[in-house]
Amino acid sequence: VSQSRYRRWRLYEPLPQTPEEAVLWKQFVQEWDTWKGLTNRIRTTIGELSRNTSESEQKALFARIIKETNEALPPFYAAEATLLKIVDLNVSLAEESVKQGNVDAERAQSQMLAALVLATVLLVMAGIAIMRSIIVSLTQLQDTIVRVERSGDLTLRVAASTQDEIGRTANAFNQMMAKIATLVSDTRHTAYRDWE
Hints:
Blueprint: H1 2-12, H2 19-51, H3 55-151, H4 165-195
């Protein structure tokens, strides 16, 4: 048990410690060593008692065991109290770390939410810009078609400023209007020549 405890202590000692914890640990080790030395004296006395057959010496050894036990109790209680202070300090540090972790997690969540809202706003704005460009292009095409239909002016054209589907449709409309204008012009010339 003692070797097992010693190995665990050797694992604990190199761990990061606050200055307060380091002081408490040194105090604990000193108190524990004091208690351990006193318990070794008790073991020695018990060993002497087991080998002794004289009744008077056994009574003296029993009295010595009781005295040594009473001497060993205060260092044990002191070591126990110091160890409990270390435990309480570690619990307190752990609780503070958990609180800080929660604060950091909430901050990260808030930042992610803000980034999400910003990304959503940017996507909506991009969507609106794309829709506006489509609507503007379609409106220009529609207005030109309506003006041609009302005025009969076959020279009207749509300003095709994009290379997307709407831009290609506007170019196709312009080419169609050019062909219709040529066809009407040719038809007029033929009719005029035939009429003369």
